[in-house]
Recover the amino acids of this structure.
């Protein structure tokens, strides 16, 4: 099987999978999901696949890249390039054979570590389009990504008398890279929003509800298991530096590009400023084409 590089083919494959997502020896309804599941762990192009069903036996894997299949409950496969791949897990459960299909996005590795109490790892992020500027009291930042998260670093002037935990952050994300879906804002189709303070845990993730939401602000409450991953935050000479991660799985970030707008506000919602591109555009486009 070949790498699914076309966005059209990607969604066409998903449509097919909705009808043919499993097979079994014997008769059963097509809409019944197969009793299979697996976990995936990324390290750049090295991807680990782990069977997540204890009763499954004779497990084998097709990695969707024309390589030979591999057997085992836990296997590691190295891809030659980034892209979307159709993974097939085959196994036996209670004497019946099943196939479970899932489209997987493989991307580059990142050197960003959110738990190292340091910003030094951001020195390795040198892509010109990943260097960000700022408006008003936002001084600038950077962005990076891997298969697990989108990482954002930002610096901004601290408001006099305000502590590190007194700011509100707003991130509005076009996760499918399509203005045709979501709420039109800053020239993008916003699918999800995150507001609140990332370090106090007072966060309000939301998703667009174009059917039931009002036309002015059609967002409804959304409760992903991991809404945000906080990293290091420091204040030095009146400048606050912070980093955090946006879990891609939580917001369905599986396209070949990710767009977002990020603003920073005081606790009374008055504006501090926002991140911008090197060309001073409010809409930041992260092209996920880096090898």
């Amino acid at each position: 099987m070949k790498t699914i590089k076309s966005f059209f083919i990607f969604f066409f494959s998903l449509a097919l999978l909705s009808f043919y997502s499993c097979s079994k020896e014997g008769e059963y309804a097509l809409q019944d999901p197969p009793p299979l599941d697996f976990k995936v762990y990324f390290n750049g192009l090295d991807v680990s696949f782990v069977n997540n069903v204890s009763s499954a036996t004779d497990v084998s894997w097709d990695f969707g890249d024309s390589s030979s299949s591999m057997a085992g409950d836990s296997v590691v496969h190295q891809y030659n390039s980034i892209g979307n791949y159709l993974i097939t897990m085959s196994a036996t459960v209670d004497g019946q054979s099943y196939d479970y299909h899932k489209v997987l996005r493989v991307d580059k590795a990142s050197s960003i570590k959110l738990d190292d109490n340091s910003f030094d790892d951001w020195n390795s992020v040198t892509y010109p389009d990943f260097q960000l500027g700022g408006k008003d009291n936002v001084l600038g930042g950077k962005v990076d990504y891997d298969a697990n998260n989108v990482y954002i670093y930002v610096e901004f002037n601290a408001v006099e008398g305000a502590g590190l935990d007194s700011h509100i952050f707003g991130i509005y994300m076009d996760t499918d890279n399509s203005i045709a879906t979501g709420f039109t804002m800053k020239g993008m189709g916003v699918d999800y929003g995150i507001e609140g303070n990332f370090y106090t845990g007072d966060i309000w993730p939301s998703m667009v509800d174009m059917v039931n939401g009002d036309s002015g602000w059609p967002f409804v409450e959304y409760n992903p298991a991991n809404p945000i991953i906080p990293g290091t935050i420091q204040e030095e000479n009146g400048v606050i530096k912070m980093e955090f991660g946006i879990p891609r799985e939580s917001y369905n970030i599986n396209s070949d590009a990710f767009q977002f707008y990020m603003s920073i506000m005081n606790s009374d919602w008055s504006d501090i400023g926002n991140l911008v591109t090197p060309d001073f555009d409010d809409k930041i486009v992260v092209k996920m084409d880096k090898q």
